[in-house]
Amino acid sequence: MRFQLLGPLRVQPTGTPVRISARKQRTVIAMLLAHAGRAVPIRSLVTEVWDGRPPRSAVPNLHTYVMQLRHLLSAADPPAADRLVTSDGGYLLLVEPPELDLFRFEEQLARARKAWSGENLGAAEAAYARALGMWHGTPAEDVPLGPALRNVVADLTDRYLSTVEEHIDVQLALGAHRAAAERLHTLTARYPLREHLHAQLMLALHRCGDRPGALAAFAAARHALAEELGLDPGAELHRLHRMILGHDVDPGGSVVTLRGARRLLPPVPPAFVDRPRLFTLATTALSAPAGQGGVRVVALHGGGGNGKSALALRVAQRVAGRYADGVLYADLRGWRVGVPPARPVEVLGELLRTLGVPGGEVPVTEAEAAALYRSVLAGRRVLVVLDNATGAAQVAPLIPAGDGCAALVTCRGLPATLDAVPIAVGPLEEAEAVRLLASLASEPRVAAEPEAAAEVVRSCGCLPLAVRAAGARLAGRPDLLLETFAVRLRDRGGRLDLLPGVRSCVRAGYDQLSGRSDAARAFRSLGALDQPEVDVAVTAALLGVPRTAAERALDVLVELRLLEPAPGGRLRMHDLVRLVAAELNHREATASRGTDSG
């Protein structure tokens, strides 16, 4: 069998290609190929096929499409029907690596990079040519795309362009300047915002002796960037411009590129509910023309489980095209039970190696590593996503230098000393939470029991983490009525057991109270109080401490987002957070009684 995704969709056994004329069937097979070797949940296929707006009959219709695909495969090659496997809650297409063009492309690309790193330029050039020979157009160009496949196509297109740029770097290193220039004239016209392609064209024309053409290429790049993005060319283009004007010497090598900074974002969770207001605030802040005096920093802050990381990844995907030198991502591990937060020097080392600094040249001290990091990124346009940060001390060394860069930070409490655009991320609106539940547990099922679905998300406090846990549980129990599950969630004593992940998320915040006994006691005691809002006076009376001590304890809990400000100077504890606090209070009281009786 041969499967083609890098261009028009093709499924071809030993003879004639399988003709898949139905549009929705092509979407199904493309989705399975994009996840070859992994089962794709039915809910994800439904969302993809109907682009987030499935009819009530979506699931049975999907089963019909899969059955028809099996028939088409069997008609072309009888054993091929067995490749389309029904898995737990989804479907799996069995594909061997040599059969799918995407896998063959990745294999050749790995060979090319290995040869290039070993300075075997001839072998590298040949492997790059074979890798790019797998491409026959835009990925899945004849397939109706839903949200997941649109992301896949965007990622593959960026991967293709990065590979083209690497291949041309090798051509330039081999002296094939005229051939490179011919390719680059077409490429820069088609992709006018890829600064590295413009830089390569300038260098190729300069080395061909066409100085006016190289200067014209710089002018064209500057016009395209100003017209589309409101930006000036970056340091790479300006350096080449100076060289061509005779102010610098041509080093004779390939153009320096931050090749490793690309495609480093983890995938956005497949079940994701857009939050238009927050999304617009963040993308607008990160897309505005660079100002004077430093980088742009956006901080998404809020309590644990509110979906900050997923929102940050979606925002970063949207604005990545404005950062010509790529996107970096680092998980700072600030809120994991039993796992220490990442030290800045560790993260700096990882980022520097990603940016191409040899491991032996990465400084071992934080100050030296931060200085080199700022130097490498100076004059570049890079977006750095810093996920799960604990505070300013952890984040500050990781903020890049230069007004062409930006940082997108997710954190629970907003660091007071971080100069950032703050965007508070809270629980979902009820309608948004119901949509998230439906994307996991199936649209028809939620539509059939709307009142029960609303009760389920209310029991989750509309917390995205909890709604995801509820949706996953329902997806694993297609026989379970939403009303039955809603009734089970009414039992506050067992609710956390039905929503895995919530307890550990809250505990990660509570663990930060080590050494702050008053704040830890206040947290536990407020859980036992079992009321959603409190003030300083109530807390002081509850703890038996002066008002100033109660204020300090509450300030710590707000800083860690275990409490949230409420109108009238009061403070609110999320219902699920309060359940965890009550458990901890009960455990502490039980341990204390055991000690007293002993």
Task: Please explain how this structure is put together.
With 598 residues, this protein is an alpha/beta fold. The protein has helices spanning 23-34, 42-49, 58-76, 101-117, 121-132, 147-174, 177-190, 195-207, 211-229, 235-244, 276-287, 308-319, 344-354, 366-377, 392-395, 430-441, 443-448, 450-459, 464-476, 482-489, 495-498, 502-510, 517-529, 536-543, 547-559, 575-597, and strands at 2-4, 10-12, 40-41, 84-87, 90-93, 296-301, 327-331, 383-389, 406-411, 421-424, 533-534, 564-566, 570-572. The strands form four sheets. The protein has a five-stranded parallel β-sheet with strand order 7-8-9-6-10, with helices on both faces. Helix 4 packs antiparallel against helix 5. It is globular, with a radius of gyration of 28 Å. 43% of the residues are buried. Residues 248-260 have low confidence and may be disordered.
How would you summarize what this structure contains?
The chain has helices at about 25-35, 40-50, 60-75, 100-115, 120-130, 145-175, 175-190, 195-205, 210-230, 235-245, 275-285, 310-320, 345-355, 365-375, 390-395, 430-440, 445-450, 450-460, 465-475, 480-490, 495-500, 500-510, 515-530, 535-545, 545-560, 575-595, and strands at about 1-5, 10, 40, 85, 90-95, 295-300, 325-330, 385-390, 405-410, 420-425, 535, 565, 570.
Layout of strands and helices, then pairs:
Elements (H helix, E strand, L loop, with lengths): L1 E3 L5 E3 L10 H12 L5 E2 H8 L8 H19 L7 E4 L2 E4 L7 H17 L3 H12 L14 H28 L2 H14 L4 H13 L3 H19 L5 H10 L31 H12 L8 E6 L6 H12 L7 E5 L12 H11 L11 H12 L5 E7 L2 H4 L10 E6 L9 E4 L5 H12 L1 H6 L1 H10 L4 H13 L5 H8 L5 H4 L3 H9 L6 H13 L3 E2 L1 H8 L3 H13 L4 E3 L3 E3 L2 H23 L1
Parallel strand pairs: 6-9, 6-10, 7-8, 8-9
Antiparallel strand pairs: 1-2, 3-5, 4-5, 11-13, 12-13
Helix pairs in contact: 1-3, 4-5, 5-6, 6-8, 7-8, 8-9, 8-10, 9-10, 11-12, 13-14, 16-18, 16-19, 18-20, 23-25, 23-26, 24-25
